[in-house]
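Anyone up for a design puzzle?
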């Protein structure tokens, strides 16, 4: 049972809230106000809605000079900035020193720290041969009390992984929602001379090559459990649906239906994969049962239907069809009934991707001679433009929390790179960039 004490006082910039509970921190929304329930956490909350929790990263003084410390600081700051739950802020050296020493700051410094940050992330790290040690503590900026701590001692190769984990646990502790810093992104790259399957951390680091087929790999799709990646492979006989086991690295062909196969996407429950295939002569949408290997046809049109995407409840599928003469986005029920056209603006719309909360569908729209990223509601509200200024945008993919989109695009380069962008159009960030094209991202859970 939670015992909560609330103290509210009017301030020019909103409400000052102190909540004390003998349990984990969570975030609850009441009307237009957000109360962080924690061990003495104070948050300033705007009257119009939620405010990002202000976080000051307080590392050792030599964090900018020693490589292992510099990398630790960079990863923590990048993940906190990308979290969409926190705002990275700076505090004066005396305030940071007090937080690191665990002593109560002077009244003047305490007031300054309260204005600058809600919490301090006090951390230390070291490298011992092939090992990496990290100690992180989260300190209430006003009370100087510890509200969360985590220590890691792992092989050096896992440095970035445990730092991503720390920030995600920080997000869960302070906002009630785990982040996506731990996520991998699968994608296709041709930098080896062939289109092969790769993955990397969401920030573009620790890239790994999964296939060496020396042919063509397309459309990777992480399973809901993250243990498999479905993708399209090409052989002399044509394209097939293949599956990578992430643990063993083994690749197996799971569907060769005698026609071209494209655009695999998993159902939310992981039991089915929707694909586009020309097994009956025309390219239509089918659903493949992963266990029984039964293939069920959903569309029966003389046009081309491809790029399916499941609604998060699994009861609807959005897809691309050129049945009106030009490619547009359509929606239908999982049994193929209830077909309706979704997009009407633009002469060419493709690559729909349904957001995890079901409120938006991202897609690519041809504007002039280049594709740009758009959002539209499943009820047709919109569309809204994102990432204007980039050219040749392709293959939007939602992060598991629905806060971000990964996609490929060209910006001042002849190669496509991987980008991240927040769903409100802010925070455009390039992540994966190599001497070759990086396309078709898919997030792990």
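Challenge accepted. My sequence:
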């Amino acid at each position: 049972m939670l015992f909560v004490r609330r103290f509210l006082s009017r301030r020019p910039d909103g409400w000052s809230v102190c909540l004390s509970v003998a349990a984990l921190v969570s975030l609850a929304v009441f009307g237009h106000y957000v109360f962080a329930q924690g061990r003495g956490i104070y948050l300033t909350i705007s009257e119009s809605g939620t405010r990002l929790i202000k976080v000051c990263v307080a590392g050792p003084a030599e964090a900018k000079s020693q490589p292992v410390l510099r990398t630790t600081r960079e990863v923590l700051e990048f993940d906190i900035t990308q979290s969409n739950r926190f705002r990275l802020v700076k505090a004066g050296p005396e305030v940071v020193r007090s937080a690191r020493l665990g002593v109560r700051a002077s009244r003047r410094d305490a007031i300054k720290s309260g204005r600058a940050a809600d919490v301090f992330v006090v951390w230390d790290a070291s490298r011992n041969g092939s090992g990496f040690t990290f100690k992180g503590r989260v300190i209430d900026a006003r009370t100087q009390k510890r509200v969360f701590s985590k220590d890691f001692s792992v092989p050096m190769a896992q440095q970035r992984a445990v730092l991503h984990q720390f920030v995600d646990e920080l997000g869960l502790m302070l906002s009630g929602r785990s982040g996506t810093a731990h996520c991998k992104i699968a994608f296709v790259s041709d930098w080896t001379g062939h289109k092969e399957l790769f993955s990397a951390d969401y920030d573009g680091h620790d890239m790994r090559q999964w296939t060496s087929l020396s042919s063509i790999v397309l459309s990777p799709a992480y399973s809901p459990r993250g243990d498999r990646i479905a993708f399209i492979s090409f052989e002399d006989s044509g394209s097939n649906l293949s599956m990578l086991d992430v643990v063993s690295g083994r690749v197996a062909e799971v569907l060769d239906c005698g026609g071209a196969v494209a655009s695999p996407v998993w159902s939310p429950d992981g039991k089915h994969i929707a694909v586009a295939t020309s097994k009956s002569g025309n390219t239509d949408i089918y659903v493949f049962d992963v266990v029984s290997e039964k293939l069920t046809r959903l569309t029966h049109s003389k046009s081309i239907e491809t790029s399916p995407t499941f609604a998060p409840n699994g009861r609807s599928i959005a897809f691309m069809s050129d049945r009106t003469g030009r490619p547009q986005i359509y929606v239908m029920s999982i049994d193929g009934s209830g077909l309706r056209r979704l997009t009407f603006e633009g002469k060419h719309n493709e690559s729909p991707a349904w957001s995890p909360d079901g409120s938006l569908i991202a897609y690519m729209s041809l504007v002039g001679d280049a594709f740009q990223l758009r959002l539209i509601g499943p009820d047709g509200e919109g569309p809204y433009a994102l990432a204007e200024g980039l050219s040749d945008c392709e293959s939007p993919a939602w992060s598991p929390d629905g806060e971000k989109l990964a996609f490929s695009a060209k910006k001042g380069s002849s190669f496509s790179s991987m980008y991240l962008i927040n769903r409100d159009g802010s925070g455009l960030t390039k992540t994966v960039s190599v001497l070759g094209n990086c396309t078709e991202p898919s997030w792990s859970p």
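A detail worth pointing out: Residues 1-51 form one domain.
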